[in-house]
Amino acid sequence: QVQLVESGGGLVQPGGSLRLSCAASGSIFSINVMAWYRQAPGKQREWVAILTNDGSTNYADSVKGRVTISRDNAKNMVYLQMSSLRPEDTAVYFCNAVGNKNFWGQGTQVTVSS
C-alpha cells in the first residue's frame, strides 16, 4: 500500500502562486509514476501533470507553462508549483501514485479568487 497526503492548498488571488506538496509513504518502491489531478465543482477529475521514474514530465494543455511537477526522492515528496493562477484553476487537487495499484490522496483545495 501507498499512502499519499497532500498539503499546500489555499486561497490565492488571480495571478498568484502556490506550491502543493504530496508526502508519500508505504510501499513507495512500487511506484512508477506520480501525477497530479484536479476536480472542480460539478466537473470530472482531470489530469494536470505527470512525472515518471525516469524524470519525464508532461502537462495538460490548460496548465502548460504555468505549473511544474517535481520530486524530492530523499524526502519522498512530490510537488506541484503553480503560478499565474486563474479562477478556472479552482479545484480540489489530488496526488496520484501508480504502481501495482492506483493510489490517491485525500486532496487539497485550491481557490483562485479576488
**Terminal CA distance:** 40 Å
The dominant shape is globular
Mean pLDDT: 96
Largest sheet properties: 7 strands, mixed
Q: Sketch the topology as an H/E string, one letter per element.
A: EEEEEEEEEEE
Share in helix: under 10%
Residue share in β-strands: over 45%
Structural class, from helix and strand content?
mainly beta
Uncertain spans: none
Compute the CA-based radius of gyration. Answer: 13 Å
Tally of alpha and pi helices: 0
Number of strands: 11
What does this structure look like?
It is a single chain. The protein is mainly β and 114 residues long. The chain has strands spanning 2-7, 10-12, 18-26, 33-39, 46-52, 57-59, 67-72, 77-82, 91-98, 102-104, 108-112. Strand 4 (33-39) and strand 5 (46-52) form a beta hairpin. The protein is globular, with a radius of gyration of 13 Å.
List the helices and strands and how they pair.
Blueprint: E1 2-7, E2 10-12, E3 18-26, E4 33-39, E5 46-52, E6 57-59, E7 67-72, E8 77-82, E9 91-98, E10 102-104, E11 108-112
Parallel strand pairs: 2-11
Antiparallel strand pairs: 1-3, 3-8, 4-5, 4-9, 5-6, 7-8, 9-10, 9-11
Comma- or semicolon-separated keywords:
114 residues, four-stranded antiparallel sheet, 11 strands
What does this entry show, briefly?
The protein is an all-beta fold.
